Every structure is written in structure tokens, then in C-alpha cells.
């Protein structure tokens, strides 16, 4: 009898339905404001993943161009990007695509989740703020994807194929097939997201750290100046920039977070990294590092502070050009002569071997130069344009002020060179080349890539082509 | 050995009655097996209780009362004989082994059964075949020994789990590793790990290495549904049952087994020497329009350095193994106690395995109807290894020791002339006089300064009680535990290698796997005399498993003085925290019918509830049925001419449905992981919910015959099997733009969603034959042959044209697609080298398969058609061809045992073939970056050598030879014949052993992995860079091949 009981009563219901103790079930993640805050942090963490703004996205946009020389011929650290031999299955092509869309989907899920649980996460107003944050990040993700995977907007006003526009949460097997929207359509979505963000983000986030590492109103405005510049809508660049740039020097954002140029450029890239110039940066701590073979310093610092994957191009790189006056320019500190191999390395993110330097995403200096360029291109206030350029330039090179330019072309050339110098290692070089439809210059034995070349932009992720039946390749 | 066994079985005592003495008869009993005297035979005067037992030489003396004239001889495992006494007072007779009983009771799920009545497909390997093998875990020693079971050694790293495939690959995304059950309790195996076993560092850790092979009495492999369905949801990959030794009634028995061996690397690549290297690479530089960059470095004696990096990384290792077993018993109690110690050095420097274990198995009859027993094993095993780069996922590790000897420049030294390591401050191998990078890292400091270990403390045990309720009806309860604690330690110096980027690093990770298993069974035997035997079994099993891991990583070492986690570092972060559990509750039943010894029928069923599946999908039903018909028992057979040659002939068929529950413990739930953003906590969507996820089910069909002929000299079986796996869980790839997360907790994206969709077939024939080719008193030759075929085909996936691509780290070679074998190779076809210009010719394919030949000119004109028009590059997606299968289509082994007098010789040959291998290592060996090359690169195209087999060398060319994407040039056939083991033994003659006061002793020498015959150009056709991954087999990328081991050993019985 005991035997019979033992045999047939034996199944423990509790053990059969275990609840995970270290991960959250989807049923509970939206049930408190604290969890919603952490979910929002999770979106930011996705943005600054090593494959994305944690370093690699920034790095790819520099090493495609001419200011760096590959030293390790390591396929894992951007060799194919550097030498323009990318194929649809190259790791960086697939990984960047995936992580950017991972952020987009997580943002979409978050937006839906907070909307459906408004009462639990803090009310409708809070929901709108969360959604503004998510839309800022989604806009940034789409904008970033466009810069590598699609023809520049400048090429025929965005009529080329852009990206699949995913604006709904994807939680199951459905909806693999989605065709590419045009570049212009994607830009329209980006602007819609950023406008929503601007209107609904907080004016400021309560601490210097949060003002640098989470979006506030001025962050969205600053990003819009970059977006409109890519679209060559100079009037819009000016009107956006004017919201956060005073008419006259010293230039400052007088509403929201009071952004300004920091006096000493070195302070911008030194702890605590949260000065008024750093509009948006990726934070790192010992507990949350960019990861192995990620981190700006990993690529640009020689050992033992980094892996030294890229040294400065001392044949035709920016530090060999006239715009850079080594003796007078504080930015000469960005050059590091490595005694052990005689090569020069970028010293902008010097901390290592742990790469704790924040990765800059948007700086106030860029907004000033964006505005300056828009003024030049649109025939606006040329003296203000000059003042803006000089504000950035003379901060580091007090003797280097330009007195004026003979032509728009000359002004533009000076602006682009200043940007190339000021933002080296910050991922704007490829952007500047492509939005102006310029040839990507060659370096060492790597040939130049004209805008007509299929290699001018990246191939589409091979997995995407395989799984999305409506997806089209880039060449 | 046979004699040893017999002594075990010696009956304790026989009543000896004293009667009126009439006649004293002496005699000797021999075994027909080896012609030796047979000890322990019961000798009775027929019809009386007068009896005795034969002594160690088989001799006996007995008093036969007057009027009695027959002696009966009986002994377990031998056919009982009766002898009529003649005038002589000396009786000599030979007894024959009874194949019906000895060794023919085999273990089945939750019980044992006579082999001849078993109708499921079960193969058995005796412990003798395993005990002396110089391996770390018993599964490695099963290679080639079991029909239908393909086992391969994926690399030369010690205690790396072998890849075991019972009748092919039976899952695409779950483990294809069989269920391993030890004395009734399922244990942990590679399927609980992440590749390379259960460790999280480079010290491979196969938990099956915690079982001392010397403790194993037999291994049974359950292959078809009829045999395995009693294990229900865990049976899809087959089940391996391990039975450990137990004591037998009789006097105490001591066995001592010992061997010592030397292990050496074999089949290393013929790499360019320093001079050739400089010539090739400088030529490549010139062809790329660059200056020469490679120049000799002179050592302190002014001789140019020519470094063989293999010498730095590899070695000849020493290994030894000692086992002591003591067993015995009486009518109430029997015991088996053993202890073992082994220490083995691998062919890779600092790769060591050490194990110490103790086991106690005991059974005690408390009352006539009540028996209790216990098994208890404790093992402490230490695996140590450097970063071998040979475990799954490590393929392209820049400090992997499998890869470093292949890529490091030979014209630079290991140490500079001042004695310091030749390294750069950039964590690279120093270029010496070369002007460009000349290696990834320097292997020497990595070996000297870094260390990794994985230590197991493993307690396996069970207790049981067995009550006979009524005659034939037994209730048995068994409670087993399996507690495995694993401590993984990693230390990376900051000076060079993997620890460099963290300024020195130490990881300690602790994992505790905790399992309890409770089984209750009722077993009823009944029957109707000779007409019908019936056996019923019903039971319940519950199993709960907890898997908890925690650890931390310390980085930025305070001082190079420290070399452990406990030293001083400036930072610490948590590492590898996991807390998970699963539970299985089951009910099962079996019924066996044996009618008139001719008609056999067996049915079994199991209902399993498993915690990992979603509510509503937790329970599944599984069943199997089989039938056998022993034709040779029929009178028409016995009367026919056939019976004179075919002694035994049986038809057998089985069908059933079993499952695979090897999913993650929370696979069905929608999950959010956690992390940090700057200083703040995060919650991150990591896993889509999967409410429909459920078992994979295999429908297994078998038809077979068993036979024995020529007086049982030939015995064998032939089986046709067909295994249809349905509801395969596929990680259905999602468009990356959907943003579905990749593996939990990380930021990779491009995830997939596990879905029960897809089906696959494994079909083939397996054959096992034993043949006593020669049997004479002084010479015998036994042949044990097994041979299997396998055809694997994926018959359905998510959609007709779905394809699953499985990556080998950074490279993707395997494709799983409907109509092809699982994990076939997906490559761009190449057609050699264009003799006009030395460029590799690739084949592009249009929408309808029309071919366009294109060629590649690195850093020059790039991709052009043969007439020079620019074109786009070929890609796997657009132009790839599928080559396969990667699973051997035929394989098996022949084990020959020769005995001459006291000598025995074993020749064990394993063979396998019909498969293709992607030799990715070859792509690396021809890569035109700084990497060193195989000597075959010397035959590169030059204007003077227009028929060269290697494309014109151009510096940094990583495309022409397959580093950028896989090409057909690197696909090779994997056929091989391997002399797996040669063993020569000598058994000490009994007069000598008697003088030494021992019962038997045997000395032997053996060579493991003696010879390999293959046309495969890589180091070993068995390499599996991706370990057990079911969809990524057949890839050879930078893994170190198997060793050859010479051992000398002794087996002693006292």
C-alpha cells in the first residue's frame, strides 16, 4: 500500500513551475516606476554596447578615412573597414546592424510597455517622458545606421534605399519581411522622433552625470543640428542651433542645461567627463566597461594602455597638415610618440588598460561648428560663422584665429579641417566626407574610394538579406 | 582476466557429507575458453549432497560412496556437465561457457534482462575493454567499439569531452549528447556545459572523467525506442548505462591495475622555416607594392634565428594510473571497495589531468525478503590547461596555443638576446628585425605566466531498499544524489597575452550542480511454467537539479608578485552568476512477455513532466514496443539443415516515440536580464517568450536479426534503423532588423526564436559480429567487428528554403537546409589558380545556377571576370555551394585479440568515412598576412611557375585562400583508418603466480592512437573545432590534434 502511494502521488507542483530568481519575467517588468527607470537605463546600455557607441561605431567612422593606419591586421578590430574590403558577412557589418536594431526594438517594446502600464509606472506624464527618451535613442540609432548602410542624403536628396523602418515591438516569429524605406523617409522618422523628444524631454536631468549620460531637451536639439546638416537643410540647422547657442560669444546654451565650450580642451576628455561641453557621452565604470577589443582606448592606445590597433597616419593624416600647428595647439597633446616602436598614436582616450574614458557622442563644439557651417553654406551671418569657428579653434590654438576667408569654399575647407582635427577619434570624419559627397582618401597601400564606388557605403548585413525576403543589398 | 572473474564467482561453501568411504576420485577441470584449469567448480556426487570445489588449478578430490557412479560439475557461467565414472580414479574434463548466461545478462533501464530475451537495440561493452585505456574518461575508450555509436575526439586537450553520436545527430539546437546513467542515477555530462565540458575556462572538464574507468563493470548503450523509451523525454540521443562493479560471494579478492605512459604529438604541420618565411613574405610585400619587411635576427652566436614554435607549445608528456580494488562477500553481504589515482600530462605544455577517487558499493540482505544497498563514489579531479585555443569558441583566439605555432613568424626568437621575452609593449610577439607585426602573442610568456584550472569535487551515491512483497513481486526504492562542485580558476598576467588588456586578471568561478533522484518501482515476475514468462514493472521517478554559479573577476593587478585571485588588484566585478533549476517527474511502466522461449514481446511507456516547458506543455507521453521471434527454437528449424550451421536465429522489430528535453531551464519564459549603465542598474529585454515550446520527439523504428552459428563461434546482429525526429526545436533566425536579442544577457542582437518546427531523419544499418576464428588450447584469435552506416537528412525546417547557418566563431561554414545532411559545408566554389596571372579563380552563380568564373587580385584590380571586367565579389549567400555530409556515412571498428600461450595481442582498428571536413586551418596556413605558412605555399604562382597550386602571394591577402569566406579549396574528405590501440600482454604462468602468492598477473604494453591512415591534409580528421555542436560539425580550425600514447602496465589479482 505504501508502495502504491509512493508510486503515484509523486509529482511536486511547485518544483514543476519554478520562477527564475535572477531574471525578470516579462509579466513583472513594468510594474513599478523603479523598474521602468531601470528599463530605460537598459536602453542606454544597449546604445553604448561595445559594438555601438561604446566604441566601435565611432571607430569605424574614423578608420574608414585617412587619419589612421592599421597596425594589427586583425580582422576582428576593423581591418576590413579600414581597407574597404567589407562583405555582407563581415562581422562588423552584421554586428553593428544587429545591435542598432536591438536598441530600436528594445525602445519600441519599452514605449509600448510603459503605455500599457501607465498607472504602474507613474502616470501618463511619466509615460510621455519615458517615450521621449526612447524616441531620442531610436532616432539616434536610425541616424547612425543611415551613415554607414545607405547612400548619403546628399546623393539625390535621400531617394536611395534606406532602412527597414521598425516602429512596432517585435516579440515573436512574425514580420521578418520588411522592405527598405528610402533614405528620406528614414530621415523623416528620425526628425519626428527627435521633435517628440525635444518637446517632452526634461529641460535637465538633475546632475552633471545624468545631464551628460541621459538625454534632455538640449541633447535632442544638438542631435538635430547634426541631422539637418546631413540633409543640407541649413536653415533648420541654424534655427535648431540658435535654440542652444547664444548670438554672440561666449557661446552658451541659455535655456535647459547650460552647455558651453570648456576652457581647456584637455578637461573635456578627463574625469569626470561631465563638463558643460559634453552634451552626450557614453559612461564607463570598472563595473561596466566597454568590453574586450572594444573601447576607444583599446584601439588607439599603444600597449600597455591599449592594443594599438591603429596608429596616427603621419604621411597624410590631419596631424601632418598646416591646420595643425604643433607648437601652438593644445591638441598636440593628442599625439603620443610611442618610444618602443617609433609610431604616433592618438592620445585622446588615454586611460588603460581598462578603458574608462567616456566615449563622446555629442559635444557642444560640434554644435558650434555645425552652426558655423550652416551659416556659411546658407549665406547667413558670416562674421558669426567666423566667430563660431574661431571659438573652437582658438580655445586650443590661441594664436590661430582666422581673420576671414576669400570664398565660401575656403571657409568650408577650413571648417572641415577644423572638424577633422577637433573631432579626431570621435567618429565624425566619415560623416563629414559622405555628407559632402567627397572621396574617401587613400592611405598607405589602400586606395581612395570615390562616391561612385560600391564600397563608399557598407554592404547590408548578410543575415538580414537571408532572413528578410524584402530586403535588398547595397550593390 | 577470465580466471580472475571466475574466482570472483567462486561459491563460498558446499556441504560436504561424510559417508562410508568407498572410492577416492581425483580430477581436474579445464575451461574450454583458454584451456586453463577452472577454479571454484562445484563437484557433486550426483544424487547426494556430497561435494567439493575445485582449487585454483581446477583440481579436486572427492570421495564417492559405493553405488554412486556419476559426478556433476557446475559453475556459474558454464554449462553443467555430468560425467560417468569409469574404472579410472582420475577424471579430466573441459567445461564450456554457457553463452546463455555468462555476461549475457545485460542491464536495461531500471533493471536487468537476459540478453537473448531483449528485443530492444542494446550494445554492451565490458569493463575489461576500458580499464587499461590511457584516457581520462571512459567514453573516450568506447571509440569504435559500439555499432551505431560514432565517437570522436575533437582535439588533443586532456579531458575534453568526446563527441558522442548514437545513430547520428538527433537534434539541431539541443545537445545531441546521450543521457548518461550511472548505477541507475543520471549524471552530469557535456550537455550541462557550454562546450569543452563544464568549465568556463580553457581547462576542459568532462565530468564523466570523474568516474574511474577501472570501477566500470559494463557499459550498455540503449539505441532504439524499445530500449530507451523507459527514459522517455531524455532518450532521443540514446542512453548510456554504466554499471559499476559489486562484490561477489567468496573469499576476498584484490586487484591492482597500474600503467605508466608517454604521450607525444603526431602529425604536426610542415611549416616554412625562417629563410623560406622571409622569402615568401618579402615576395608578397613586393607583389603588394611594398618594401621588404622581413629580415633575419641573429642570436648571440650570430646565427640567424629559426624558431619552431611547436617546440615552445608542445611536449612529450608522462602519464600514470593506479587502481586498487578489494571485493568480496558472503551470503548476506557483498562489498566492492576501490580507490584510484591517475596523473596525466598532455601534449600541450602545462595541460595536466589528475584524479583521485574512492568507491564503495555494498549490498546487504537484512532479512530474507529485504535487501538494502548503497553506492558511494567521491572524486577529486583537477584539470589544468593553458589557453589551448582548441575548445569550442576559442578558434580565433589570438593567444590560443593551437593557433600560435601556425601564425608566429619563425624568423623571430622566443627570447631576445638579452634573455627577455620577445614581446612588444602592444601585447604582440616582438618583430625582431622585421618592420611589421610578426605574430599575435608570444606563446612562451603565456605558458609561463598564465594558468587555468578546473577542479571537481564530485560525490555520486545512492541507497536502495528492496522488499519482496510476495513471491515474484518486489518493491524497490532508490534515492540517489549527484553533487558536483566545480571551481574554475584563471590567472592572466598583465605582462603578455589575454590578461594584458585588463592589466592582469584573475577569475574565480564556483559552480555547484546539485541533483537528487528518487525512484520507486514495483517489479512483478510471474509465468505459466515453461510456456510463459511475464515481467511487469511500474515506477515513478523524480529528479530535481539545481545549478548555481557565482564568481568574480579581479583586474588591474597591484603588483606582478601576485598570481592568484586572492592577491591584490584594484578592481573586481561579478562574473558568471547563474541560479537555475529544473525538475522532472515521471511515471513509467514496462511489460515483457516471453512465450515458450520463442515469442518475445516488450512494451514500455513513460509520462514525463518537465519544468522548463510552458504551462500546458509540461507533460509528454513516450512509449516503445518491440517483438522478437526466435525461429531457431521452432521445431521446423531444428529439423532443418539450417540448424546445423545456424544455432540461433531471431527476428526483432521495434518502434517507439522518445523525446529530447535538453532546453534551457527557463526556455519558455519571456525574460529580462540585468546589468549596469554607468553606475545605475538596468533591466534589459533578453528572451522572447515561447509559450508553445515543447519536446522534440523521435520516432524510432528498428528491424533486426540476431544469430549465432558454427557452434556459437560466430555471433552477431544486423539492424536496420530509421529515426525520424519531429518537432525539432529550431532557433528560427529572425531578421536582425527585428531586434530580437541574441544569447541572453548580451548585446549582440540578431537573435532567433526557438520553435518546434522541422524534422530530420537518421537511417542506416548497423552490424556487430564476434568471431572466434581460432580456438585451440595454445592459440586463439577472436575478432570483434562492428560496422554502421548513417544517412542523415533534414526533411523540414521553418520553411522550405529556410537555412540555419552556424558560425565557427568569426567564420560561418555550416549550413543546415532541407534535403541536405545537418550542418553541411557552405562554401564558394574555387577552380584553382589562373595560370595566366596567378589569381584564385572563384565561381559565381546566377539565379539559375549559371556559372561565371571570376578572379581576385588583392590590392590590385580586385574582383574581375577572367577577361578583366570589374565585378562584385562572390558571396556564400549568392554563390555558395553545399558540400556534405559532415557526419561519417560509414564507421566502425575491428578488435582482434590473439592469444598464444601466455601472450595476448590486441589490435584495435577504427575506421570512418564518407564525410567532408572544412579544413579552415589550411586557410590560415596560406593566409598572406604576417602569418607563417605551410610549406605547400612554396608552390605559389610566379611568372616562372605558372602552374603553381597556390595563388600569387600578395601581402595581407586574406581572401584568395579562404580566410575571408570559406572556399571549396579547403573542403576535404575525412575518410580514415586508425589503429586506435595495439596491445601486447603476457600473463604470468600459474606456477610463478603461486610462488608469488597471487592469483594472476598480466604485464602489457600498448600504443594508443598508434597509426593513422588518411588522405586528409589537416592534423587529424577527427577534429571538431565546435565540439558537440550538432549543427557545426566537420570544421577544423586551429585545434590541436590527438596525441599518441605509449603505455606499460600491469594487472594483478590476489
Automatic annotation (TrEMBL), chain B:
InterPro entries the record matches: Beta-barrel_TonB_sf, CarboxyPept-like_regulatory, Plug_dom, Plug_dom_sf, TonB-dep_OMP_SusC/RagA, TonB-dep_OMP_SusC/RagA_CS, TonB-dep_rcpt-like
Organism: Indibacter alkaliphilus (strain CCUG 57479 / KCTC 22604 / LW1)
GO cellular component term, pick one: cell outer membrane
Domain TonB-dependent receptor plug: 115-239
Entry keywords, A to Z: Cell outer membrane, Membrane, Receptor, Signal, Transmembrane, Transmembrane beta strand, Transport
Chief place of localization: membrane
Annotated signal peptide: 1-20
Cellular localization per UniProt: Cell outer membrane
Membrane association type: Multi-pass membrane protein
Protein name per Swiss-Prot or TrEMBL: TonB-dependent receptor
Family listed: Belongs to the TonB-dependent receptor family.
SUPFAM superfamilies (alphabetical): Carboxypeptidase regulatory domain-like, Porins
Top-level lineage group: Bacteria
